[in-house]
Specification:
- The structure is a single chain.
- By secondary structure, the chain is α/β, with parallel strands linked by helices.
- The chain folds into two domains: 275 residues, P-loop containing nucleotide triphosphate hydrolases (Rossmann fold); 249 residues, Class I glutamine amidotransferase (GATase) domain (Rossmann fold, 3-Layer(aba) Sandwich), CATH 3.40.50.880.
- Helices cover 36% and strands 21% of the residues.
- The protein has a nine-stranded mixed β-sheet with strand order 11-10-12-13-21-20-19-16-17, sandwiched between helices. A seven-stranded parallel β-sheet has the order 5-2-6-1-7-8-9, with helices on both faces. A three-stranded mixed β-sheet has the order 14-15-18, covered by helices on one side.
- Strand 10, helix 12 and strand 11 form a beta-alpha-beta unit.
- Helix 1 runs parallel beside helix 3.
Length: 535
């Protein structure tokens, strides 16, 4: 079978192409087809690893250590596709590969050009994923907006593949904006122009997903069908839903999956959507509420902690609980006059996520101390675990100058320090401890109870680690080292003594959480928060 589905965007960016592509993948899986996902990012960076979270949102990490765009996180939450380095393609990767081949003389003296050399490299990378015999359909999302100069080579490669594969084996889905002007009047002209731009590069879309605040009428859909040469059944209203997990159901109710299968000449199968319906029910009609404070560094952009928000939501789904999330910029807490009692009033759980740089660190330390002393359930992720250790060393052991060498290289008590393997590294891109590593959990710990198993595997993204030279001192003062690497050399998790629920982990559990399969740590964190709320 091996079908290709290309998802492009028009009018403007941030329309939700990733959610649309993920939802289509979820629908195809619900019908029993195996799916793979590919994200193409037109930026010149080789990967997302060196970008600020304020620039491009969070960096999503795969098992094989790729630092990718956050849309791969959407793919991982909506589908069961096994994502790796191959699923993320950037302009930087493509041009770097072509230039390296040219330097090695692989082009036999020919002039190297965008067409065919760059486009061939793009096609080769797409087909490396799509040619897997276990994959029925590969959904390729092309980032950016049609009309952007950066996207031209990728759209040309897409056009070539549609031509080479044939319309029954390669379809185009275009996501556009249908705005409403003053008075609520719907305007279709931006979509007409967006489709025209796509047609100018040689691609006729087979389906349109029309983004709007409210569902669009049949009259609007018919008008757009008429002016864009897209069948009316393929013009889909992509309206704002109460939760992103309702989008697959909205597409299903409009028969988008049935339409695409017909276009690809694939026999339709029964769609099993019971799990998605249960997820939407739990999110939109929870039986109880819990309030969680997330104390982080990058609160101005929601996507900076995208996987955190979603994993918390999944933890709530597991208990049919709705979440009220209080975003607390850790810089606010650095002011000695900050009233922590007022800030954390009514909070049932505190989470401190990952991050880099010194800004806001002291505020995170104050939040951790508040959670420890007031017996509030606490989950620390990556930097959040290191904060937990720094606070404990200061408040319990009495090392007032305890710190991480990331923030104070001259500290007399470096409780967190650079990994030995990182000391000689000069380049920042792709050089952290990245990807999946195994860990061993301690019997009787919160983390062992959450996973229910001794051996676990989780994804990492860090350069700093708890200092082994002070581990004995920490444990002598009753801090529980609840998980380590299999050889016992690195601390992977720790817990406070005499606390109702506290877990700090060096890895990123949020990357493996799904709405239909919540991560055990987030599930248990929300359970503990609900218990605290009840108390």
């Amino acid at each position: 079978m091996r079908k290709l589905l290309f998802v492009t965007g028009g009018v403007c960016s941030s329309l939700g192409k990733g959610i649309a592509a993920s939802s289509i993948g979820a629908l195809m899986e619900a019908r029993g087809f195996s799916v793979q996902m590919v994200k193409i990012d037109p930026y010149l960076n080789v990967d997302a690893g060196t970008m600020s979270p304020y620039q491009h949102g969070e960096v999503y990490v795969t098992d094989d250590g790729a630092e990718t765009d956050l849309d791969l996180g959407n793919y991982g939450r909506f589908t069961t596709a096994k994502l790796s380095r191959a699923n993320s393609i950037t302009t930087g990767q493509v041009y770097k590969a072509v230039i390296e081949k040219e330097r090695a003389g692989e082009y036999l003296g020919r002039t190297v050009q965008v067409v065919p050399h760059i486009t061939n490299e793009i096609k080769q990378r797409i087909l490396a994923v799509a040619s897997n015999p276990e994959v029925d359909m590969t959904i390729v999302e092309i980032g950016g907006t049609v009309g952007d100069i950066e996207s031209v080579p990728f759209l040309e490669a897409c056009r070539q593949l549609i031509h080479e594969y044939g319309k029954q084996n390669a379809v185009s889905i275009h996501v556009t904006l249908v705005p409403a002007v003053s008075g609520g009047e719907i305007k279709t002209k931006p979509t007409q122009h967006a489709v025209k731009e796509l047609q100018e590069v040689g691609i006729q879309p087979d389906a349109l997903i029309l983004r709007s605040a409210k569902p669009l009428s049949d009259d609007v859909r018919r008008k757009i069908s008429l002016f864009t040469n897209v069948e009316e059944e393929g013009v889909i209203s992509g309206y704002d839903a109460p939760t992103i997990y309702e989008v697959p159901l909205a597409f299903y109710n409009q028969k988008l999956d049935t339409f695409l299968l017909r276009k690809m000449n694939v026999e339709s199968r029964h769609a099993e959507l019971g799990k998605w319906q249960a997820v939407v029910q739990a999110v939109t009609k929870p039986s109880r509420k819990v309030k969680i404070a997330v104390v982080g560094k990058y609160m101005d952009l929601h996507d900076s902690y995208k996987s955190i928000w979603e994993a918390l939501c999944h933890g709530g789904i597991a208990h049919n609980a709705g979440l009220e999330i209080e975003k607390v910029d850790s810089s606010r807490l650095e002011d000695s006059n900050a009233d922590l009692e007022a800030i954390f009033k009514g909070i049932h759980g505190i989470l401190v996520p990952g991050g880099f740089g010194e800004r806001g660190i002291e505020g995170m330390i104050r939040a951790a101390r508040y959670a420890r002393e007031n017996k509030i359930p606490y989950l620390g992720i990556c930097l959040g675990m290191q904060i937990m250790v720094i606070e404990y060393a200061r408040s319990v052991i009495g090392w007032q100058d305890a710190h991480s060498t990331e923030f104070n290289k001259a500290t007399p008590h470096p409780v967190v320090c650079l990994l030995e393997e990182q000391t000689r590294i000069k380049n920042y891109g792709g050089t952290m401890r990245l990807g999946a590593y195994e860990a061993v959990t301690k019997a009787g710990s919160f983390i062992r109870a959450a996973y229910g198993t001794e051996q676990i595997s989780e994804r990492h993204r860090h350069r700093y680690e708890v200092n082994n030279d002070i581990r004995q001192e920490l444990e002598a003062h009753n801090l529980t080292i609840s998980a380590t690497t299999p050889n016992g050399e690195l601390v992977e998790a720790c817990e406070w003594p005499e606390h109702p629920w506290s877990v700090g982990v060096q890895f990123h559990p949020e990357f493996k959480s799904r709405p239909t399969s919540p991560h055990p740590l987030f599930k248990e964190f929300i359970r503990a928060a609900l218990s605290h709320a009840g108390a």
